[in-house]
Amino acid sequence: MVTSLPNLLTLSRIGAIPLVIGTFYVEGEPARWVACGLFVAAAVTDWLDGYFARSRNLVSPLGRFLDPIADKLLVAAVLFMLVAFTRVSAWAVLPALVILLREILVSGLREFLAEVRVGMPVTRLAKWKTGLQMVALPVLLVGDAGPRALPVREIGEACLWVAAILTLITGWDYLQAGMRHMRGPGPEQKAGVQPTRAG
User: Fold this and answer.
1) 3-class state of residue 186 by DSSP
2) For residue 100, how far is the Cα from the chain centroid?
3) Per-residue b/e over 108-117, b at no fewer than 16 CB within 10 Å?
4) Could you count the other beta carbons within 10 Å of the beta carbon of residue 149?
5) Is the per-residue pLDDT at 199 higher than 60?
6) Inter-axis angle of helices 5-23 and 29-55, nearest 10
């Protein structure tokens, strides 16, 4: 149901994307803090929609479809705008690119595995990756508007690099899990044993 609370929270995360993008076209440091606040609020809805969906038994096919898309759209939009407005150094473009490419890869794998009715659960390491992204991006949105005593942009870029490294590891794990199913059923599957998923 579109109007269920978890789905409305997910839709609000998508709705926040043009607002965050709009702040890049506003001069002054306050706009950077507004962008940071909007991103943090959107990130909080990511936790809340899952919590309410599980606690109130409101899990729906629409929610399962929209939730990962909302996350990827938000992250991709912010990374793109940070690079486009040179809010990150040239070297930090590399982890941003790695993160975007991995998201495309995993989306393709999920689509393929959904066709063969195989789930691809989120691993603990992938959750750490997401957590680091959610720290790095609001810090980078603030950037030079942050406290002068702290190397704010450098901290954000360091978190982005660590997130990119975890992205490579989890992306490889997911790819291996997908390739097992692309090769067809192995001996275990033929014997009726469920294959181990990426964890």
Assistant:
1) coil
2) 9
3) ebbeebeeee
4) 6
5) no
6) 170
| Under 8 Å between Cβ of 1 and 60 | yes
Number of CB atoms found within 10 A of residue 181's CB: 18
Task: Enumerate the domain spans of the chain.
Answer: 1-74, 86-199
Q: What is the mean pLDDT of the chain?
A: 83
Contact 140, 160 (CB under 8 A): yes
Between 199 and 151, residue with greater pLDDT: 151
Residue-wise DSSP of 108-131: HHHHHHHHTT---PPPHHHHHHHH
Answer for the pair 70, 13: CB distance below 8 angstroms, yes or no.
yes
More confidently predicted of 5 and 30: 30
For the stretch 97-112, pLDDT in tens is: 999 998 888 777 777 6
What 8-state DSSP symbol labels residue 198?
P
The radius of gyration of the chain from alpha carbons, rounded to an integer in Å, stands at 19
pTM of the predicted model, to two decimals?
A: 0.81
Q: Is the dihedral of CA 109, 112, 113, 114 positive or negative?
A: positive
